[in-house]
Amino acid sequence: MFVEFDESLVTGNETIDAQHKEWIGKIDELLISCEKGDGKVKAIKTLEYMADYANFHFAEEEKLQADVAYPGLEEHKEKHAEFRKAVDELHDMLEEEEGPSAEFVEAVKKNVVDWVINHIKSFDCSVATYIHMNAHPERRINVKYS
Question: CB-based burial of residue 70 (10 Å sphere; 0-12 exposed, 13-18 middle, 19+ buried)?
Answer without folding.
Answer: buried
